[in-house]
Amino acid sequence: MKLYLSILTLVFSTNLLPSQIPVETYREEISSLNGDQEIFNYWKKLEAVDQEILVNLTDVRKADSLSIDQMIRTALVFEIHGTNKYTKYNSVPIINLSHNYVGSSQLAFWPIIERCSEIGGVIDTIGGEYPAYVLESVSLTFYNYSLFAQESKYPELLEHLSHEHTTNVVAELEESFQTQRTLSNLRLIEVMNSWYNQSYKEIDRSKTFSLVEMSDGKVYINHHGRFQQLDLIQGLHDSQTYRIVNEPFGWSYIYRNDGSLSLVDKDGSILMEYTIAD
Asked: Which residues of the chain have pLDDT under 50?
């Protein structure tokens, strides 16, 4: 285990990133696991990678690559060995989701979370009563918006996520990985405007997020160096309404000519009004 972690740490300490995830190698590795103890040890290895390497990475691209890699391995364990090899005290799939900040990866991985919730156990209590923790992860990743103390929203948001049509978790995670590589090669053309971070009531003036135009000619929202493509869904004389591509909840951003920005839900109710950064 220590040798494995040392090698992985060395790989992610370099400037080189893998061009693809070795899925078939992982598939063979996981298929060869024989008996409950070997599978248990594999879960412990994934947990160690998360706690000792992933959470300490400060480079966004490296962290996102490793977190998707971790999700793929977890998905393969479920695919090959089934839910009977997942115990209710296993937190690995839940931390896979919460330590990933790529929206498309979280949506691809959601069927794994649903399978864990059917079994119950740690998922029912981690970070509060289910589904608070996992919904908070998705909401913060897509919109940087906290659902704290908004339990009334949970049933509708869970319904939206349950309608996401992930037919092949591993393949969609691979696609998400490749999309992140493509995004990393884009150049910034223009910062349209920037606002202070605000996921709940308090404004965080130490951090900002922006709407930007990139070298592919498309508009993105940039949160902490992570870019999500926006679709223009309505253009008026005094505002434009944008929606994150493939976002799950039907929420949108209204960007006005005076530079103000609002996050609204699917019914047009304002969830957050942002403050323009100085």
From this structure: 3, 5-7, 10-11, 14
Angle (CA) 61 63 69, round 5°: 105
Q: Are strands 239-244 and 226-235 parallel, antiparallel or unpaired?
A: antiparallel
Domain assignment of residue 278, yes or no: no
Number of domain units in the chain: 2
173-182 pLDDT per residue, tens: 999 999 999 9
pLDDT score for 20: 87
59/195 same-domain check? no
Over residues 183-226, the pLDDT tens digits come to 999 999 999 999 999 999 899 999 999 999 999 999 999 998 99
Residues 156, 211: one domain?
no
Record the pTM: 0.93
CA distance 169 to 184: 23
Cα–Cα distances (Å) from 92 to 43, 80, 204, 271, in that order, read 7, 17, 30, 32
d(CA 207, CA 223) in angstroms, rounded, equals: 9
- For residue 82, give its domain range: 2-183
Single out the residue in 159, 183, 207 at which a domain terminates. 183
Identify whether residues 203 and 173 lie together within a single domain: no
CB proximity list for 104: less than 8 A, separation 6 or greater: 172, 175, 176, 179, 246
Asked if residue 86 and residue 153 are part of one domain, the reply reads yes
Find, among 227, 181, 186, the residue nearest to 19 by Cα.
181
